Amino acid sequence: CRPRRVSEPALVTGGGGFAGRHLLALLPRAVAPSRDELDLLDAAAVLAAVREARPATVFHLAALASVQRSWESPAETLVANLRMTAHLLEAVRAEAPEATVLVTSSGEVYGPPERLPVTEEARLRPQNPYAVSKAACDLLAGQYADAFDMHIVRTRAFNHAGPGQGAEYVIGTLTRQVAEAEAAGASAVVLRTGNPDSARDFTDVRDVVRAYRAAAELPAGVYNVCSGRATSVRELVELVRRVSTLPVSHEIDPERVRAHDVPELRGSAERLRAASGWRPAIPLERTVADALEAWRRDLGA
């Protein structure tokens, strides 16, 4: 399958989400209906939206993306994420069969790694309901590519972070805790985390969406999006300490410790780099600093 350029018009689902907002900054002319404008759980509505947009490129980012909430509502996460993906793929197959479709999957689909770094050939062994839902969507996208000769790219992004991320994610919650303490005029801040030795592969969201744009120009297939380096929660606390205006201490909160947590996960983005030249450009130190500045603006710190 020949590489293709990202062509307009582009349709983006999940444009109001964390990564979606950053992607739209790269694709200012994209069509990105809000959740109020388009219910992806309504198959007829999705079909009509694709018919109207007539997209040449589709970026499917919409999902229920919280691991914590997926434990609380596993059926909702599984059903909603798979239905949204199925409805979109069916609509593209019917109304825009020549379009390139980029389906965003997750590094969470790999689960406990047999070896590091994790490559695209690793088996899928998801360890939480969110990861199971993303694995199902990933496999469904691959099946549509095989069965209907659709040009579908699947990106498996590992942890991404940066300005605008919610507090349910580790860098989001650490930086928010500091910004809240600063805004309250506190004399110090205690950062509460789950397992401090849990290590993940973090990439700045602005680099991640650049990877999405680059991957949409590539042959159909699977591409990891990651930095290739694992950073522990303990190391993140230290990075936050460096940009805080307050003294920082650290406590482990048992409520934040995840069940079935994978101790370390880092991936290889060599396939994407070799095919497109993409590589992360923003250091994690800047990601943390920019995330804190965003919370300061939001909270008036």
Descriptors:
alpha/beta, 5-stranded parallel beta sheet, two-stranded parallel ribbon, 10 helices, 11 strands, 16% strand
Molecular structure report:
This protein is of the alpha/beta class. Helix content is 42%, strand content 16%. It has 10 helices and 11 strands.
Low-confidence stretches: none
Class by SSE composition? alpha/beta
Biggest sheet features:
5 strands, parallel
Separation of the first and last Cα atoms: 51 Å
Give the mean pLDDT. 95
Rg for CA atoms: 19 Å
Shape: globular
Instruction: Work out the number of β strands.
Output: 11
What proportion of the residues form beta strands (DSSP E)? 15-25%
What is the gist of this entry?
This protein has 301 residues and is α/β, with parallel strands linked by helices.
Please outline the helices and strands.
Layout (H helix, E strand, L loop, with lengths): L9 E4 L4 H9 L16 H11 L3 E4 L6 H6 L1 H22 L4 E7 L22 H20 L2 E7 L2 E2 L8 H14 L5 E5 L5 E3 L1 E2 H11 L5 E5 L4 E3 H11 L4 E5 L17 H7 L7 H16 L2
Parallel strand pairs: 1-2, 2-3, 3-4, 4-9, 5-8, 6-11
Antiparallel strand pairs: 7-10
Helix pairs in contact: 1-7, 2-4, 4-5, 6-8, 6-10, 8-10
